Amino acid sequence: FREFICALHTIKHESVDSVQKLHWAFRMYDINGDGYIELCEVVEIMRAFYKMMGSQVYKFLEESTPEKKAEKTFIQLNGNLEGRVSFAEFVDGAKNDLSIVKLLSSPCKI
Where are the beta strands (DSSP E) in 1-110? Predict the structure, then answer.
């Protein structure tokens, strides 16, 4: 968890380009390190996010459960519907999501 917070701080405060941000995000979701993101990994990350944010999560996300948010995110990224997402698919999915494009192109504030 400490590494996650340190990496998040670095991304928010240093001049890191969008590809580096996407690579960092991909590695965060790729829990088992096999070079692909699977639905179970997205569910695990979303559960941690919902738990960390508590009731505040509903200010940012529409989905009522981490499982629903994970499924929606995974479907959006899984262009070829093979059950796992490669880094290339992850980048393509991010480019097609206006909220991610906006986040990556603007300076972040804590």
Answer: 37-38, 84-85
